Amino acid sequence: MSSQPVTRSRIEAHSIDFVPLAERHGKVWHLWPVWFAGDAHLATLATGALGIAMGLNLFWSLVAIVGGCALGTFFMAFHAAQGPQLGLPQMIQSRPQFGYRGALLVWVVALITYVGYNAFNQVLAAQTVQELAGLPARPTMAVFTILAMGVALIGYDLIHRAQRTLAFALIAILAVFTAGAAWLVPLPAGQFDPHRFVMIPFLLQFFAAAAYQLSWSIYVSDYSRYLPPEVGVRAAFWWTFGGAMLGGVWMMAVGAIAAAALPQDGVIAAARMVGDQIVPGFGMVLLVVAFAGLITATSLNFYGASLTLLSIADSFMTLRSTVRERVVSLVIVTVLASALSFSASKDFMHDYELLLSVLLYIFTPWTAINLVDFYIVRKGHYSIAAIFDPDGIYGRWNARGLLAYLAGFLAMVPFFSTHVFTGPVARALGGADISMLIGLPVSALAYLVLCRNVSATQQMEVPQHKQSVC
């Protein structure tokens, strides 16, 4: 371990990650529209249709959506509270748990997640524009991607302003849809029969909703790190939870209703036709506003992917936050997402289900370890300087975090259930996937046991807003 102090200039060299106190601004309630609009878009709508597509009725689909969103959003919102305290993006905060280089494990996976989501978003965008205007897919994907990349390039403040505007428009649109669907849209018989419970599609919808919400955890602090450090954990948690929970549940419910009303049609076409049953032409309004939400959600992914890619590169060389670096990183992640979207199979829902399952498996151990470290082991006390020091107190490789992650992941494997692989326990349960309920406690307990002898020096590092970074 280096005994030499890490100077302010070293942190400033990593200014792409660190937000100094002088640059902190904004209000904590601004988190609500970011995550409401961040959730209320077309990809969320598709997530809500998964249970119906598997044979679940609307009653149990809605129960699964609410329960799954509550579980995933609960953990996601606790991550949001880390941003104001540390002034750092979410992934950088993994260094104390996994080490300066060990954090590359979750960073690479996070980058894959961003690329995967944006590939599916591009496919959804093309399907939506084809439904609305009959335009060809690839040019639509290209224009959609350029728009989203432009918002991401301008950055944090524009994203916040766009999400606030969209949030209020979405509330009005979703309120009309909900009221209209309740009174004017006929549903097939049995859609609200509580006796028509089917375990496997219920669990698929439940954990798909949980995984979808949990996947925001990898960058939720990216949009709270500019807030003043006086913002408390409770306020950051509830404003994030309220926005993400309401936006996620509401838009997934729209997808479930559309799929239940018109089960033979794709979810995008079904949503439009159900909207038109409420008020002629309203289906187009719904899709246009949800499409705008998809643009800003894709820009969130591009922004996070850019930060993550630059952080990966920064682990091997010192980078400064310049326009050139940001543009290059955005172009790289855009090319990767576009290549994946252009090669996507026609079985969109099947591939999307697999993506959500993989995200659940990968990020369940990480979220448990990151939250236990922040709230229990170190109680929010970190050395910002040491996070940027490869020879600092957190080390290059932290065996405790890596072993706890491995323990949690391996414990989940027998419970995996996808069309690619089904573990023995999941097979014995008839294909039910409860791996998240296993991975969370195993990873958390393993990390706590391994950290029982963490040195007092590491446990008592003072927070950024109370320490000298020199």
TrEMBL record:
Organism superkingdom: Bacteria
Name this protein carries in UniProt: Purine-cytosine permease-like protein
Protein source organism: Novosphingobium capsulatum
Keywords of the record: Membrane, Transmembrane, Transmembrane helix, Transport
Gene3D superfamilies: Hydantoin permease
Cellular compartment(s): Membrane
Transmembrane segments: 31-52, 58-78, 98-120, 140-159, 166-185, 197-215, 236-262, 282-303, 323-342, 354-376, 397-416, 428-450
Tagged with keyword Transmembrane: yes
Stated family: Belongs to the purine-cytosine permease (2.A.39) family.
Membrane topology type: Multi-pass membrane protein
KW Kinase (keyword) present: no
Cited InterPro entries: Pur-cyt_permease (IPR001248), Pur-cyt_permease_Fcy2/21/22 (IPR026030)
